[in-house]
Amino acid sequence: MPETMDIEEYLRQGGVLTNPSNVPPRYRGELLRLMATFVDSELAGSAGFAAMINEAPGLKARISAARIVLEKTDHAERVLTLMGTFGADTARYAVHHPWAARLPRDADLGTARHRSDMRLSVFHYPLQGWVDAVVMNVLMGRAVGVQLQEFSHLSYAPLADIFRQIAPREARHAELGEEGLVRIVATESGRAEARRSVAFWRPRIAASFGREGSARFDTLRRFGLRRRTNEDLAAAWAAEMDAFLPAFGMA
Amino acid sequence: MARFFPLDVAEIRRDTRDAVVLTLKPREGDAEAFAFTQGQYLTFRRAFDGIELRRSYSICAGRDEGALKVGIKRVEGGAFSTWANQELKPGDVIEAMPPMGAFHTPIEPETARHYLGFAGGSGITPLLSILKTVLAREPHARFTLVYANRQISSIMFREELDDLKSTYLGRLSIVHVLESETQEIDLFTGRVDAEKCAALFSRWIDIGSVDTAFICGPEPMMLAIAASLREHGLSDAQIKFELFASGQPGRARARAASSAASVAGAQCEATVTLDGATRTFRMPKQGESLLDAALANTIDAPYACKAGVCSTCRAKVLEGEAEMLANHALEDYEVRQGYVLACQCYPTTDTLVVSFDQ
């Protein structure tokens, strides 16, 4: 066993990096990109959901919505603080995009980013009222679960730690959504409305897992920043949806 | 943003032939900034021949010692560690950023946890801080330390560890594994690799009772130990790592000499290296950033904010010159070394050679 080894070889063998001074330049770029995507998506997601607090049909629902907004912002802050250790100006970053801004509902974004905003494309679509917000939260909540499961193993230990810590809280957000959805689908009209929202969100959330055959994936896997392909993750989520939606009377 | 504070060097204690322990004192009003959590590190900066070097060293004091201490082992050819070992004296001033790092678990005084620590050489520094803190603040905790060194004379903090063993009789257990010195028990001779871990776990350490494991040492040792811990049933969340800075180069390289300033011209020939592949393309000197030009030429350069804020697109200018419209992320010393934010970077010379790999 040699005394030391090349850091890329170390990563290839599953090694873990622990502070900015360990991190090779290309790894640094990809890691920051991944963190920026998470921060932008959480901030955009919570900013969009904030408007829905006032749409909540009751106090419990209102508290749930407010809690989701609060905690997603907190999760963004934790990762942004970590970006700060690499030199990012966190105060400027937190306000450099209008996080509540949305594009038209009928915009065709696919997996593409919009301008310099790194939020996942799905967070550019506007929510249309309470039922739509609940459906989006339930479907996306499960997608976040799949993503966090993947990211909890990534090779930058301080970030993997954060993802492991927030995963249960993000899972709870999805559960709160499911509690709301149970009430919505109790009526025929509610079920019809929820079905329309599922039809809108499902393909768009599926697209948020990223392109098939992504060239970047090989780099990310070599760096220990990813394990499973975009297709694998999207398929895992789709399987969850297939098993789960019928329970709410939705196929 | 990163900020440096002056620290007074109050004491320098020679610990082994090539390691010193510095006791540092923050200035009036800065004490709060230097309150630390066990296992954290300090990042120092100092100019060597006009080039700024930054080095991170772990704090070796426990939280209840009322002092800020770091251990610095001299690395062959390492400018900073050699300076700290040979030239630094009490009364000198050294600049450091506030403590950083997440190599710890929250203190829970009511619990009776069993911690397992692995240290290789100077990797002992954060582990010493952790074990002193948890043994003091969690009265029911146990700590088992496996400490790998070449020989007895190179063991850092040897006496202090012996004293701690007496203080925490029955709660602190230390296994010294020496590479090139034979001990009475074969188990304690050699390197800490997968085989050694398996032997330790079957005969010496009840791995099933371990709540959290901490590892700090060189890369091959970390890989071997982590693999073995996972094999013995620990989850990723139970294994905490600190990789010490063996990968840090001893001396920063000077920026490559820039080519002569060009006559006015609207175009620049840009050469960009990414992931080991180099491509050349032409771009306008104005109106399009280096990042946008690279992306337009199907180079998959990393970026995020495109606003000079996040530093994802950091690259190094190797030849030629460029100016940045905005920079909220790079520090002066990085700019002096030739780093730019590609999203804010516009060439001012006819050729520009840039690498994302440095």
Automatic annotation (TrEMBL), chain A:
SUPFAM superfamilies: Ferritin-like. Pfam families: PaaA_PaaC. InterPro entries: Aromatic_CoA_ox/epox, Ferritin-like, Ferritin-like_SF, PaaA_PaaC. It comes from the Bacteria. This is Phenylacetic acid catabolic.
From TrEMBL, chain B:
Its cofactor is [2Fe-2S] cluster; FAD. Keywords: 2Fe-2S, FAD, Flavoprotein, Iron, Iron-sulfur, Metal-binding, Oxidoreductase. CDD domains: fer2, PA_degradation_oxidoreductase_like. Pfam families: FAD_binding_6 (PF00970), Fer2 (PF00111), NAD_binding_1 (PF00175). PROSITE patterns: 2FE2S_FER_1, 2FE2S_FER_2, FAD_FR. InterPro entries: 2Fe-2S_ferredoxin-like_sf, 2Fe-2S_ferredoxin-type, 2Fe2S_fd_BS, Beta-grasp_dom_sf, Cbr1-like_FAD-bd_dom, FAD-bd_FR_type, Flavoprot_Pyr_Nucl_cyt_Rdtase, FNR_nucleotide-bd. Residues 2-106 form the FAD-binding FR-type domain. It comes from the Bacteria. The keyword Glycoprotein does not apply. Residues 268-358 form the 2Fe-2S ferredoxin-type domain. This is Phenylacetic acid degradation protein.
